[in-house]
Amino acid sequence: NVVRAHTLAMMVGCALCIExxxxxxxxxxxxxxxxxxxxxxxxxxxxxxxxxxNYKNFxxxxxxxxxxxxLTNEDDFYTNTTVISDFEQYISHILNHVxxxxxxxxxxxxxxxxxxxxxxxxxxxxxxNTISTYVKSIDSNHLVIDGYRGINTDDLSLPNxxxxxxxxxxxxxxxxxxxxxxxxxxxxxYMIGEYDWNDYTGGSDPLANFLSEIEKDxxxxxx
Length: 223
Hints:
This protein has helices at 27-42, 62-68, 81-96, 125-138, 173-185, 207-217; strands at 2-4, 46-50, 112-116, 143-145, 163-168, 189-195, 220-222. With 223 residues, the chain is of the alpha/beta class.
């Protein structure tokens, strides 16, 4: 009953995106997201979405924010104070957006289970702390997911990060067990946001064994 619809709030730098250009917002794009949220709620489904992608694709990514400021190193996304402010403005617009169908702001809507800081980021913990704190300053109602690719052990102690998310390519029961032990010891939840269910990358444990381990353990979340 939870869907990781990770591109709902991850659309920048295109004509139909939420933020087509720096500081310009397209609420027609959010009208479509509004309908998804309304429909999910009607069907008893909760949503997880993320604010930015690590990659360069049609929905934009962290590079879009650095491109807007004429920066050639997209990793400046994590350190440049102007870019961080631009990204916070984007987050604020989403969290404060009021759904045209329900009249409820996203920050107040229980349909959302949590906000991911990003998809497969390699973000320093200082950035994760800054952004997670900013999200919670607007929205204390929802969980925050770190969005790091792998496990950043420094994120385990961040006060405003509730869930540690990883993507398992390949699927590995042993890797899952180690991550669950490490994350739960820090009183956080471990979420497997993606996994290599068809063994595309090779070397995965059998899918049935992988899912069985998650069900047996009870402290990992398979998304």
